[in-house]
Design a protein that fits this description.
Elements: H1 4-22, H2 29-127, H3 136-142, H4 154-170, E1 174-182, E2 188-196, E3 200-203, E4 206-209, E5 217-218, H5 224-234, H6 249-256, H7 260-304, H8 314-328, H9 334-352, H10 356-388, H11 393-458
Antiparallel strand pairs: 1-2, 2-3, 3-4, 4-5
Amino acid sequence: MKNLPLLSILLLTFLLATSATAQSLPEDYWQELLEQTQHKSVERKLAEEARLQLNSQETQAQAQALAETKQALKLAEQRRTQLESEQEQLEAQLQETQQRLQIRSTALGEVFAVYREEKSNLFGLLSNARYSQQYPELLAFAKPNPSEDRLPLIDDFYQLWQALQQSWLATGQVTNYTAPWVNLAGQVEDSQLTRLGDLQLMNAQGVLRLGDQALPSLWLRQPTSLVKTNQAFIAGKSPSVTLDPARGLTLELHSRQPSLLERVKQGGFVGYLIIILGLAGLLVAFIQSLRLWLEQQRVVKQLAKPDDLQKQNALGRILSGMNSASQQQEATAPEALEANLDELLVREAAALEKGLALVKLLAAMAPLLGLLGTVTGMIATFQAITLFGTGDPAMMASGISQALVTTVLGLLTAVPLLLAHLLLQGRSRKLARILEAESSAWLAKLLNKTPAASKEAKA
């Protein structure tokens, strides 16, 4: 209602414009406009009829397709229902079959578990057995196969029983057979081997060991008596044989035990120095012991002939010196003779104890040098730990060996040197007491004779 005046104004304006335009148009203009309008109306009518016919055809096609789709859906639903029914039946059959299989395989499952366990145990036994090289088929049968997932058959059980029986029999056999082995030079030889059950494998050169390598090889170090006894047994000359009941562990310990020379080399420079000083001390002790023994023999001979004084022994030299002093100083006091005797005794005692101080010094130095080697060895060990850590014990073995070996060498050197020093000191003191006793007795006789001679002179 509000727009009515506006519409009226617009309509009036249009009419005025149309009347003004009509006055200027030709006479047949309206006739042509009418014909054109009629033609366009017919065209629109025809187009509308064509469109309606096309929509009718599409509707019929869609209806037919819908009917066909509904028919296919009906058939698919019937098929689905049929398949669901079949699935339910199959699931029921599967469940029933599984129940029957579980019932029937309860006992067989335990049997299969025992089979696998025994086969695994057999492989572990054959991996370190002395007869595995002689019977390689046993090792090939017992070797596990991760890709095999089938259940064992009856033939597998029979084969396992035969393998176990053959393994049991092999542990109690003493047999000879030809097989390859590795000698000490690392070369492979093919010769006769002797197997003593599952305890020992040997040949004419010694006992063989089974390591990570495929072929047995000789131990690096074996007792000579063991090799000779086994050679006689293999040759049939002796019924006795030397066995390692630990299946090679005893020989392994023996082969790893270093020799005396290797022990000395582990001590390094300090170890060599300790040995040199120890040998020097023992040499001095031996020379001093020999000298004291000879001196004692000469003193004993001098005691057997007290009137025949010999200067080749300590007692003869002391008594000869006292005779000279008494002849030159007949009128002197006894104190002068005693002082002269003490001087001679001290001189001979020093000669008897010659070299003992050196032996004692070397005996005291040996443990100190051992301690020095221990400290240097531990320093080397700590350096190895700093550089390489504690993951590799071989890196620390050299320093630890030096630390321990030098300590042992120092103690082994000090003990005999101390013992030698004590023995030599005891012998020298014993000999000194003999000299002191005999010279004191000689002096007492001399002093007893001097007063008697003075009394006679006065009379």
